[in-house]
């Protein structure tokens, strides 16, 4: 009898709005962290626990090259056409990433991934 380890990986994301970092966990363990931009004081990134509900390639405009839509309507994690904004609190509430980083994240996480914003 052979034992086949599960090839299913479980991913989760924690977004820390204070440190402006997005941390990706794989099977509950730290996997990678990325610098991000978050919402400005007048339109803060909403704290809470959400899930990724949709994904889009080349959504256009200020959203850069990829979009990961969250279960809170009108909010997502996306690339940017303004890379100088990364590390700042400047968005309308979404989480911005460098385009190279959102491509990497987009290719790793499936729809249904938990996203915790603290």
UniProtKB/TrEMBL annotation:
GO biological process: cell wall organization; peptidoglycan-protein cross-linking; regulation of cell shape
Residue numbers annotated as active site: 78, 94
One Gene Ontology CC term in the entry: extracellular region
GO molecular function, one term: peptidoglycan L,D-transpeptidase activity
Pathway: Cell wall biogenesis; peptidoglycan biosynthesis
Domain (L,D-TPase catalytic): residue spans on this chain: 11-118
InterPro entries, A to Z: LD-transpeptidase, LD_TPept_cat_dom, Transpep_catalytic_dom
Pfam families: YkuD
Keywords: Cell shape, Cell wall biogenesis/degradation, Glycosyltransferase, Hydrolase, Peptidoglycan synthesis, Transferase
Coiled coil segments of this chain: none
Family: Belongs to the YkuD family.
Protein name: L,D-TPase catalytic domain-containing protein
Species name: Thermohalobacter berrensis
Source lineage: Bacteria, Bacillati, Bacillota, Tissierellia, Tissierellales
């Amino acid at each position: 009898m052979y034992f086949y380890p599960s090839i299913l990986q479980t991913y989760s994301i924690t977004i820390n709005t204070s440190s402006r970092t997005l941390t990706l966990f794989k099977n509950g363990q730290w996997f990678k962290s990325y610098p991000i931009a978050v919402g400005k004081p007048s339109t803060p990134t909403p704290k809470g626990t959400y899930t990724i509900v949709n994904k889009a390639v080349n959504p256009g405009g200020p959203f850069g090259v990829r979009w990961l839509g969250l279960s809170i309507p009108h909010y997502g994690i996306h690339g940017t056409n303004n890379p100088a904004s990364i590390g700042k609190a400047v968005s309308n509430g979404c989480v911005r990433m460098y385009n190279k980083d959102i491509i990497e994240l987009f290719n790793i996480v499936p729809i249904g991934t938990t996203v915790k914003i603290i």
